[in-house]
UniProtKB/TrEMBL annotation:
It comes from Marinibacterium profundimaris. PANTHER family: METACASPASE-1, METACASPASE-4. One of its GO terms (molecular function) is cysteine-type endopeptidase activity. GO terms for biological process: proteolysis. One of its GO terms (cellular component) is cytoplasm. It holds the Pfam family Peptidase_C14. Residues 36-307 form the Peptidase C14 caspase domain. This is Peptidase C14 caspase domain-containing protein.
Amino acid sequence: MNLGVPMIDWLRGAGLVALCAVTSGLGAGPVAAELRAVLVGVSDYELDIGLADLQGPANDVRLMADVLDRRGAGSVTLLADGVEGAARPTRAAILGALAAEAEAAQPGDFVYIHLSGHGTRQYDPQGDETDGQDEVFLPIDVARSEPGSGVIPNAIVDEELGAAIDAIRAKGADVWLVLDSCHSGTGTRMPVSGLRFADPQALGVDLLPAEQVERAVVAPTDADLPGGYIAFYAAQSNEFAREVDMAPEGEGPEIYGLFTAKLAARLDRVEEAPSFRQLFQAVLADLNDTTLSGMGKLQTPAWEGTLIDAQLFGGEATESVQRFALRGRQVAAGKVHGLTEGTLLALYADAFDPPEAAIGQAQVTRTGATSSRLQAVAAGCEPRLAAPCASMGALPAEARFAQVLARPLDMTVRLAPPRDLATGVPLPGDHPVTLALAEAVAASPGGTGGYALALDPEDYEVETLHDGTTLWFGPQAQIGGQAVGLGWTGAPDVPLTALLERIGKAETLARVMGGLAGQQSLLDISPVRIDSRLRAARPDDLMPPGAQIDIFAECQDALFSVQDDPFVPLDGGEDLKQCDSVQVRVQGLSQRLYDVNRVHIDSQYCIHAQYMPVEGMTAPVGLGDDMTICADCPGDQYTAGAERLFTIVTERPSNAEALVLEGRVENCFAPSRDASRSGVADAAVSRANAFLQGLAQTPHTRGAMMGATPVSEIWVTRRDWRVLPRAQALRQAGLLAGP
């Protein structure tokens, strides 16, 4: 039976999802308490039902039993004909063994399920399949269908297998399902022995060719189940799962499932337990290298599940290594994987090779949705926008995989030359404000953030406006005709170079974090859910402009008025006002430990950071204090203008200190206490410094962040909003006249 990528409905009951919805690391389980297994091999079917016998399933079971024994499996149930000590693989025995696993499983256990045998399709009597057909595995006691029923007696249908897997996951155990069986999506019969496909017509099920075309159904996962899962399928929907003779030349036949044999060989090569992703990529490459005389390319396996970046057979998190297959100068990854033109990749001969075994580097020259074109580059290549590295000729002939090293990111902070607030006309070049800004930009050393400052009238991210007395800076320096953002009056005790350094640091951090948020792969979803929420104050609780205002009393009363109002999602792009509340909540979705940092860049270009660890599958909790918006607070603390909020999730490797940005990135004030206020040690402070130093050393690459500190993965979310001046907020609410 083929259960490839289009065959989503096969494990509908198990909650499997389409490949493009698989998450990276999501749902990975904790250290396994026990490795358990159910191995099923069905070879010798009854003669009167018309199925050809198979020779490989018994050998598959023996082979996998040996592999699991070497890995210390505590319980292995064998259901196979022709295997000593194994039970007969009947329908009742198979389902009974899976039920026994659900009964015995404990949280943290890892259950491996292997099915080798014939598979096919039949009509769906329940009517819950969109294509009107069930995918079925055929036990040894399968019988012919009654005329007209379209249902194969004793076959195990997809919903039954899915429910059995769900029952195990419900106990908190992780499940790895391997299916070395197939069914044809076209109904074509090939005159080749050793195919694990049963034609439905041989069992009395007369499916029309049109009815045998597979229709993909994306079934939602059951997020409430504590256990994770991963499934490996032997072949795609238009291919056959094959049996091959693995005996040395001149010796008797030793028939195995091709996929099982390649899988077992790779498992025996694993020394430091890589991820399921690395294992799958290696097996896929091995199968692509295998051909039989006259057969051309063989089968292409597929996978589904939440454990793809977890360690094999359960355990600690891996570094979520994602390597993509090469075909000449083409790499099987594109925009949906986060690749852009200029992305730098390391080249490897094997999916299991350690990072230091790279045999070359390449750079993306052209990218599509799912594939990209590469050119070989020297090891010193630094990926910059619009400046590709020189080509070094052909890629190494032995290169078969590529892994992302760094993505390009332009770190020049561009400011617009100043314009008059009232007219919008640029100030003359000899205007004192224009001269002062140009002089300060030229004198800026770029700070320790690796950024450079430049004046650019066309392509800028910092707007500058002059209202006659004050020069204003901001992503948007006016709202409703009123200047907002960071103001400079020319006072000698506040040098303009100091304000530009503040802007440079804030924009550098925003550029890097924004680049990470924008380049995140669709297949790499954060293992910590981030919810930004808003509870808006009532406009009629605010004082009018010009009134004698006690800011603290005003917001205290306004917040009391809405204390029973629900928070609503803050999606970004909203207009906020005085006394609104912003809340960030986080929820762990896997059993691993993650560091979560909240970085808020206010309208004054001041950076505020708060940190918390998230471990395990948690209920939503607040990340840092709720923020009360202040549009016109006294002093140079906080005013109206554009603001940005980033949340940074990083996986914490084993035996590593926390990555705490709190107390490390602030640029407007010295924290009242150092980072130890969060209960972190000096080593954690050093790790945060190394993280930030990596930005300074190579600010134009995402890879620099990974190389400077042992962060295996990083997920960034971004929310932008505007804080309206008081008058503008009341005008929008219809409480104040004027445009």
